[in-house]
Automatic annotation (TrEMBL):
Residues 33-310 form the Ppx/GppA phosphatase N-terminal domain. This is Exopolyphosphatase. Residues 317-490 form the Ppx/GppA phosphatase C-terminal domain. The lineage of its organism: Bacteria, Pseudomonadati, Pseudomonadota, Gammaproteobacteria, Oceanospirillales. It comes from the Bacteria. CDD domains: ASKHA_NBD_EcPPX-GppA-like (cd24053). GO terms for molecular function: exopolyphosphatase activity.
Length: 504
């Protein structure tokens, strides 16, 4: 869940909403405030309850498991005690769908929460997960495959933009599979193979249809998949996304252990469930031919929250986020647009030479032009550092951690000495492009230092190996002594990158 996102331009009284997800493994709650058309995160609570572990062979939910859930809900209830009942939505998923005595638990839970609880069908769960993912991920052309591995079930959705085309919930989850195949924490190739085959059998029911419909990008959500992604990154198997190769390498690594206690690649509370979750994800990759999977911060509870707020607007959530940052920090929009125009003009002239042809490069440069001055809201002195801090440490809806990191680096490096070593924190594959975008932003910002409404003359920027040539119309630069001095200083700064700036 991200910090803020607009609903409409209409001013409305502040109100609070709470979305609660009673999952098979964990209970989650998100509390958010609606202020003048914006959703602002207020609180997040999450507790590992493992309801699914309390189901016996007859699908009877044990008293111990019920008590774990009820004690968690008592803490949730205190947090939302001042909210009107209509502002709270509570949904239960697979464990309570399966439990034959679920009604008993619901009645006790409703007494605590003083509002109704819903057991939602698997496909409704899948729909809400898809909504949560779409509202917190950048829009994509073509079909998107969303996979969410829960404690008792796995949801798989194919959709285009905000419209699901295929929804499915399969009876396989990290808790139920742990009980079945890794009950004592022992890890063996035989047990892992059995778990994988069981998942493949479940996937057979959707395999042909999903492959026929196809997709252009794949996204995973919730704790199990994020834990697998983090394990892959910590082992150096991938830079950001889960790839088929990284997944296979992680599988081999885990199979080298004899017990879950030996697993150090994930947090302690995730170790027991990792082999089962990994087997399910490996099966999904194999069955559906997945090559790469990104991860989403949004899932079921975010989908609930956005649906409650009536926020089904088909727009790029990142554009909303950037606009909100500009409003929040009182950015000079005219100046931002001037810098944007010059930066994109320069990009268009060097994109081939510098390998900056990906549309995301232009997008990132444009967003940087819009936000590089947000630090002025704190202080003019060192404002580029303030801007970087705000961008790095804010929840920006639709932006991944890596996106925020790049945006912060562009803001940090747009003036003064070039912090070239800071770019080493990026994956190797991103460093060069980000440094080059920073150079373009620096030049554009410098050329508009006087913040004048007078239109800049056309400029010509060319790149030849390590030399940048910046040309202006004849006689123009001689009439701009401040710009001339700034460009001379910039030439000195760029030497640290091995670049020679020639101005004429």
């Amino acid at each position: 869940m991200n910090d803020t996102s607009p609903l409409s331009a209409t001013a409305t009284p502040p109100s609070l909403l709470a979305a609660i997800d009673l999952g098979s493994n964990s209970f989650h709650m998100v509390v958010a405030q609606l202020i003048d058309g914006e959703i602002k995160l207020q609180d997040v609570m999450s507790e590992k309850v493992q309801l699914a572990a309390g189901l016996d062979a007859d699908k009877l939910l044990s008293e111990e498991a019920q008590q774990r859930g009820l004690e968690c809900l008592a803490r949730f209830a205190q947090r939302v005690s001042d909210l009107p009942r209509k502002a709270i939505r509570i949904v239960a998923t697979n464990a309570l769908r399966e439990a034959v005595n679920s009604r008993e638990f619901l009645e006790r839970a409703e007494d605590i929460m003083q509002t109704s609880l819903e057991i939602i069908p698997g496909r409704e769960e899948a729909r809400l997960i898809y909504l949560g993912v779409c509202q917190t991920r950048p829009p994509q052309d073509g079909m998107r495959l969303v996979i969410d591995i829960g404690g008792g079930s796995t949801e798989l959705v194919l959709g285009e933009k905000f419209q699901p085309r295929a929804l499915e919930s399969l009876e396989m989850g990290c808790v139920s599979f742990t009980q079945r195949y890794f009950p004592d924490g022992q890890i063996s190739k035989a047990a892992f193979q059995k778990a994988t085959y069981a998942a493949l059998r479940e996937l057979m029911s959707i395999q042909k249809r999903y492959r026929r419909l196809g997709w252009s990008n794949c996204v995973g959500s919730s704790g199990t998949i994020k834990a697998i992604r983090n394990a892959c990154i910590s082992l150096g198997l991938t830079e950001e996304h889960i790839t088929a190769r990284a997944l296979d390498q992680l599988r081999q690594k885990i199979l080298g252990y004899r017990h879950v206690d030996e697993i150090t690649e994930v947090k302690a509370e995730r170790r027991a469930l990792l082999p089962a979750g990994l087997a399910i994800l490996c099966a999904a990759f194999d069955s559906l031919g997945i090559r790469e999977m990104a991860c989403s911060e949004g899932a079921l509870r975010e989908g609930l929250l956005f649906e409650m707020a009536g926020r089904l607007q088909h727009e790029d959530i990142r554009e909303r986020s950037i606009s909100m940052l500009m409003r929040r920090y009182h950015v000079d929009r005219h100046q931002a647009e001037r810098v944007e125009r010059s930066a994109l003009q320069a990009l268009g002239q060097v994109s081939d030479s510098w390998g900056l042809n990906d549309p995301q490069h232009a997008q990132m440069l444009r967003w940087a032009a819009h936000t590089h001055e947000i630090g002025r809201a704190i202080s003019h002195a060192q404002y580029h550092k303030h801007s970087a801090y705000l961008l790095q440490n804010s929840d920006i809806a639709g932006f991944t951690n890596l996106d925020r990191q790049q945006l912060a680096l562009l803001a940090r490096s747009h003036r003064r000495k070039f912090p070239k070593d800071d770019f080493k924190q990026l994956p190797d594959s991103r460093q060069q492009a980000c440094r080059r975008l920073a150079v373009l932003l620096r030049l554009a910002s410098l050329l508009h230092r006087n913040r004048s409404h007078v239109k800049m003359p056309p400029l010509q920027l060319t790149v030849d190996n390590k030399q940048l040539s910046l040309r202006f119309p004849a006689g123009w630069l001689e009439q701009q002594p401040l710009t001339q001095a700034d460009l001379e200083q910039e030439a000195e700064y760029l030497k640290s990158l091995g670049l020679k700036l020639q101005v004429s």
